[in-house]
Write a structure and sequence with these properties.
By secondary structure, the protein is of the alpha/beta class. It is 41% helix and 20% strand. Helix 3 packs across helix 4.
């Protein structure tokens, strides 16, 4: 598993714009620049809560076995893929991202963690290099917000899952409430970009984009409805950490 196991199909059109207003090319370039500091900044700026969020998501596939595969999309450096592997040690995990610089860190991390059975590759969530029904589940952690076409991305996630399998989406949410909501957004808008920029100057733009994309992205009610609209059943929107993050689960 030391090299990319899969190759991407042609990337989606750069005419698309995601919730934060960026094209696929701009998203790819942004994450390529922050790849080296990505893990450190995520863990620091979430106060380590991102580990817990991923563990909770991974529990949804804990019953899968050796004959099953999970596609983890927008995988970045593979943190959710690793959480899934730990929750279901026998399962095969395909970890795909369209930014090669991010994916390159995955095999090294897997080797350090002594985790086998996680295959990394370059793949676009809007055009996955996987056949219909190839996986028992598909997942994305904090990446669907960056996809240029939300409906198309969700449809691709559902397409590669077999009937009865799960689609899992872990994503930031603008929290509700008159006090905590504005306080949290203030942290995202003003404090987080400054801290990120001090640690790695190339990260400032990425963490200024973060609050903008969270504000513009679908809320839990809309996101759950979008999952139902593509045919997923038993859709759940589970709030985590005062609603700053939601885990969305749907069954094909």
């Amino acid at each position: 598993m030391g090299t990319a196991a899969l190759s991407a199909t042609a990337p989606a059109s750069d005419d698309l714009r995601n919730a934060g207003g960026k094209s696929p090319a701009e998203v790819r370039e942004m994450f390529a620049r922050v790849a080296r500091r990505y893990d450190f900044l995520n863990h620091l700026l979430s106060l380590g809560l991102d580990f817990r969020w991923r563990r909770i998501a991974a529990r949804e596939v804990a019953g899968l076995g050796a004959s099953d595969a999970v596609a983890d999309l927008c995988t970045g450096t593979g943190d959710l893929a690793f959480a899934i592997k730990r929750a279901a040690p026998a399962v095969k995990v395909l970890a795909l991202d369209f930014t090669p610089e991010m994916v390159a860190y995955g095999p090294k991390k897997a080797q350090r963690a002594r985790l086998e059975g996680v295959a990394f590759g370059v793949g676009d969530t809007l055009r996955l290099p996987l056949r219909d029904g190839a996986c028992a589940a598909s997942s994305v952690g904090f990446g669907i917000r960056n996809v240029g076409d939300l409906e198309r991305g969700l449809r691709e996630m559902a397409r590669v899952v077999r009937p009865g399998g799960k689609v899992l989406v872990l994503e930031f949410t603008k929290p509700r409430g008159f006090f905590f909501g504005p306080l949290y957004m203030c942290y995202l808008k003003y404090i987080l970009p400054i801290v990120a920029g001090c640690i790695a100057w190339v990260a400032g733009d990425a963490y200024r984009y973060l609050p903008k994309s969270i504000q513009a992205f679908a809320g839990p009610d809309e996101m759950a409805e979008r999952m139902r609209a593509i045919g997923l059943k038993d859709v759940r929107a589970v709030p985590l950490t005062f609603g700053t993050v939601h885990l969305y689960v749907g069954v094909k």
